Amino acid sequence: MTAFLAPGSPPRFPPAETADDEGLVAIGGDLSAARLLAAYDRGIFPWYAEGLPPLWWSPDPRGVLPLDGVHVARSLARTLRRGAFRFTWDQAFPDVIRECGESREGGTWILPEVRQAYERLHRLGHAHSVEVWTGAKLAGGLYGVHRGGLFAAESMFHRATDASKAALVVAARSLSLAGIELFDVQFVTPHLARFGAVWWTRRRYLQTLRRVTTKRVDLGGLVLQA
Question: Are the C-beta atoms of 138 and 159 separated by less than 8 Å?
């Protein structure tokens, strides 16, 4: 049975294994930093639409990008080699998350309260962004949540050809070198499959998560590897 959480209640969740057939674990609660971090530590993430309370999910299967097997198309590899883009880390987090919400066709789950919640996580050092620039213009990027050896990628966007693809590859390479072991993408879309994303069972995901979240990984001064 899906759990119902009261706003302001202690940041606790039922086990992810109790999710229903769609992966829904709980309804309600709030987007406090403590609750969000408790969710990611347990393999759960929020995803909902305007007019609904927060919905908390742990799908089975789960999308993962194996960091030792990221596929890079030849054309993208050439783009990276010739230095068409400039990359930064945590230099424009609010801009990246805003663009991720605005660039979605057919609506977005990145509502104003979601942006505020993840910007709060960013200020606390738990959420990070990769920015892709052409000159002084933000051309693309991605953001996600960091917990130990986990990086949970939440969304990405592009305003220039290949900018979001470049952000994903640079993020994967850089985070792997920094010690990240689990790169969560939630779902394997056709786009992510081209980069090597695969489905894991929830059981495998949670077992790996429990191991890697005990690891100490410092992303404060991450050096990006293009």
Answer: yes
Do residues 209 and 58 make contact, with C-beta atoms less than 8 angstroms apart? no
Q: Walk along the chain (226 residues) in steps of 10 and give the mean pLDDT of each run.
A: 94 97 98 98 96 97 96 96 97 97 75 97 98 98 98 97 98 98 98 98 98 96 92
**How are strands ordered across the β-sheet holding 24-28?**
3-5, 24-28, 55-57, 45-46
Q: Which residue has the tokens 């030849």?
A: 74
The pLDDT value recorded for residue 215 is: 97
Contact in structure between 25 and 13 (CB atoms under 8 Å) = yes
* Residue 49 burial class via C-beta count within 10 angstroms: exposed 0-12, middle 13-18, buried 19 and up: exposed
Collapse the DSSP code of 49 into the 3-class scheme (helix H, G, I; strand E, B; otherwise coil) and give the result: coil
CATH T-level assignment (fold) for domain 3-59: Alpha-Beta Plaits (3.30.70)
> 63-212 — its CATH code?
3.40.630.70
